[in-house]
Amino acid sequence: METHASIEVDADGDGSARERERLLTDLADVGVVLPEFAQQIAGARRQAAQLRRENDSLVQQVRRLQRARAALASRPKPLPR
User: Fold this and answer.
1) Which pLDDT tens digit goes with each residue over 33-75?
2) Residue 16 CB partners (closer than 8 Å, separation 6+)
3) 3-class SS letters over 29-73
4) How far is residue 22's CA from residue 16's CA, in Å, rounded to a whole number?
5) Which are the contacts of 15, defined by CB distance < 8 A and separation ≥ 6?
6) CA 51 vs CA 7, 33, 45, 46: distances in Å
7) 63 compared with 1, residue with greater pLDDT
8) Beta strands 2-4 and 7-9: pairing type?
């Protein structure tokens, strides 16, 4: 027998009933885990989109504040009396 990616296969390609049963069990386990994983991915995508929107808003706010500061800095200062 050879082992590839943690799956045992017979060199002649016949495979044993035990190996097939294990593979079917593994496949069933994946079927249980996959929907939860898909939900987590969807939630992560929604969160990433929300964070991008928040970041864009914060970047716009920083730019407004920088323009306001630059405008204040370019004003002529009053002469002392």
Assistant:
1) 999 999 999 999 999 999 999 999 999 999 999 999 999 988 8
2) 10
3) HHHHHHHHHHHHHHHHHHHHHHHHHHHHHHHHHHHHHHHHHHHHH
4) 10
5) 9
6) 40, 27, 10, 9
7) 63
8) antiparallel
Beta-bridged to residue 8, according to DSSP, are 3
What's the CA gap between 60 and 65, in Å, rounded? Answer: 9
Helix H or strand E segment including 7: strand 7-9
pLDDT, residue 5, reads 53
The pLDDT of residue 77 is 81
Q: How far apart are the first and last CA of the chain?
A: 97
For the record, the structure tokens of 16 come out as 């044993």
